[in-house]
Amino acid sequence: SQPGAPAPVAAPMRDLEWGQINFIHTTDIHGWLGGHLQEPQYSADWGDYISFTSHMRKKADEKGVDLLVIDTGDRIEGNGLYDASNPKGKYSYDIFGEQTIDALCTGNHELYQETSVAREHNTTVPKFKHSYIASNLDYIEPETGNQIPQAQRYIKFTTKNLGYNVVALGFLFNFDRNANNSVVQPVEEAMKEEWFQKAIREKPDLFLVIGHVGLRMKEFEQIFKVIRDENWYTPIAFLGGHAHVRDARKFDDKAYAIASGRYFETIGFLSIDGIKKKSGSEVSAEAAVTFKRRYIDNNLFGLHYHTGLNESTFPTEHGRNVSRLIAEGRKALNLDDSFGCASQDLWMSRAPYPSDSSIFSWLETQVLPDSIVNEERKDVPRLAIVNTGAIRFDIFKGAFTKDSTYLISPFISRFNYIPDVPYAVASKVLELLNNGGPVFSSALDTQYLTIPEQAVPRGPFFEAASAETDNEGRRLLFADVDSPQKPLSLSGANSLSKQDEDKGKDDPELIGGYTTRDDLGDDGDDAIHSPIKFYAVPNCIQAKISFPSPPGNGDGNDTAPAPDPETVDLVFIDYVQPWVIKALQFSGGDYSNDNVKVYTNSTLTDVIAGWVKKHWKKDC
Ligand SMILES: Nc1ccn([C@@H]2O[C@H](COP(=O)(O)O)[C@@H](O)[C@H]2O)c(=O)n1
């Protein structure tokens, strides 16, 4: 792990349950190759992961089973190691490329900017030329304008130890905000292509579908149905992502999917047993296939535990070298430079909104009013709108570093505005963005405004939890408050923490963390945690800036409300522009993109960094 990273705290653990084919899975790592420097539970880095997979491959060989390492995209945007360099990814592409990966695909984040699409094509695809799969993604070559597959459409291989034949596909959900040098083919269209029809008739022992697709999104369901119609009994393993959650979904007895979280907090483990080799004909209906999964907290305590190694035997030379490369990259980019000291934690969804601990309340009441200023229009009252999805992570009490700015908001979106909008019209926009779903077309679904954990369709357990409220009536996003995984019940746990053994306790005090419930039960997490509550957030927040003050003599005793301004500047982060225009039109404003002007060239990242430097004392 990285210098300065806190040591992980020991926790009661569940073992990995190996099968004939085993998968180790990362997804949505968003540049967090250095691990989490402020959270011991997730503090292992990509070098440690390389050591881990090397030991796990050896274990698989000793057991005579197979192990495949998978990544399902969104490798970029969200961490200084990627975002702070010029060009972006100067260090992170090479560091990521040090891992041996058996199948990988593209996420939507690789496609927002033309430069990252091209970088993927010219760097990651050739690096992983035998394992990169692009079933529904094309690249437009800049030299010729030709549209070519971003990588091979599917791969076929035979596993090393048990000799299973596998056909692997790699999809992206039906994403449509991609840069012009890429083409995403809707999944249902891709499945009509000749290559796909050939692939599903290959009669392998196992279909492997990797995808940057939420498990509960329609795309995986569609792929499952088409493969299953043609292959009644063949096991199908889906490895997905995009939703930033730990989840497992059952499609049928022989088809399961897992998703392995976000930000390199989680290393997913899926095992399959009972796969029957085909002897030229169809697999028999009787073959019973079992799927097991484990969500590994990415820290050294757990990685040592699962490999049976320790501090001195665990790191491989390769792993150590990669950890060193990460440390060098971080140093060159000055990622640990402190911009200010946060006096408290500010949460995205672990605190209710609005509240003093909500990062969105902090933005709305402190950061935006102080920072969204265009000198030429500084006295014009304005509404400033930011989508909650623009914020990606929490702020922890302590040093707020250069790195933190990219963890919080990596996007290069700037602030635009429409001048002098009648207040009666402008004041309706926020409500429509947050609650006016049907006003917008399906292409402008308002779910794309909020945080992925809330936006992407989630399983029945999440849905049930999000119908709950806390005792003050605030809607929960998900909270395993009623999960059987309570601190008092540690059934299935194999190792108590050293501290707790020393204290001679049977039921140690647990630390807060993921307590996942999915289609396979509530025993998926490797480390047993006490549950954390997550609260729902709105799609967008809004700050009222430079509004008229209440009338009166300023003695503070005035009760009359301030008058509304006649007109305001409607300022918004550029990502939300299509929704804002639509909401204005619905509210009776005759506006289009032609009315939009640049308000400030600062990104939200710049705005937050500037505010922290100005308002928080430098050192902690
Ligand atoms: N310029 C951008 C780009 C994206 N977002 C937000 O991120 C969400 C997608 O995140 P994933 O990690 O799940 O791909 C998207 O729905 C937006 O909320 C943004 O705010 N600005």
Question: Which CATH-level-2 architecture of the largest domain?
Answer: 4-Layer Sandwich
Q: Count of DSSP helices?
A: 18
C-alpha termini separation: 23 Å
Structural class: alpha/beta
Q: Please give the order of strands in the largest beta sheet.
A: 6-7-9-10-12-11
Strand content: 15-25%
Low-confidence stretches: 479-492, 495-504
InterPro entries: 5'-Nucleotdase_C_sf, 5_nucleotidase/apyrase, Calcineurin-like_PHP, Metallo-depent_PP-like, Nucleosidase_C, Pesterase_C1039, YHR202W_N
Region (Disordered): 487-523
Domain Calcineurin-like phosphoesterase: 22-245
Protein name: Calcineurin-like phosphoesterase domain-containing protein
Summary tags:
620 residues, alpha/beta, Purple Acid Phosphatase, chain A, domain 2, 5'-nucleotidase,  domain 2, six-stranded mixed sheet, five-stranded mixed sheet, 18 helices, 23 strands, 25% helix, globular, binds the ligand Nc1ccn([C@@H]2O[C@H](COP(=O)(O)O)[C@@H](O)[C@H]2O)c(=O)n1, Calcineurin-like phosphoesterase domain-containing protein, Pesterase_C1039, Calcineurin-like_PHP
Secondary-structure blueprint of this entry?
Layout lengths: L20 E6 L19 H18 L2 E6 L8 H4 L8 H5 L6 E2 L9 H14 L9 E4 L6 E3 L4 E5 L6 E8 L9 E3 L2 H4 L3 H6 L6 E7 L5 H13 L5 E5 L5 E7 L2 E6 L5 E8 L16 E8 L2 H8 L9 H16 L5 E5 L16 H13 L10 E6 L10 E4 H7 L5 E9 H4 L2 H7 L16 H4 L4 H7 L9 E4 L18 H6 L29 E3 L4 E6 L21 E7 L3 H10 L10 E7 H12 L5
Parallel strand pairs: 1-2, 2-3, 7-9, 9-10, 10-12, 16-22
Antiparallel strand pairs: 1-13, 4-5, 4-8, 6-7, 11-12, 13-14, 15-17, 16-21, 18-22, 18-23, 19-20
Helix pairs in contact: 1-8, 1-9, 10-18, 11-18, 13-17
Bound molecules: ligand L45E5XJ5.
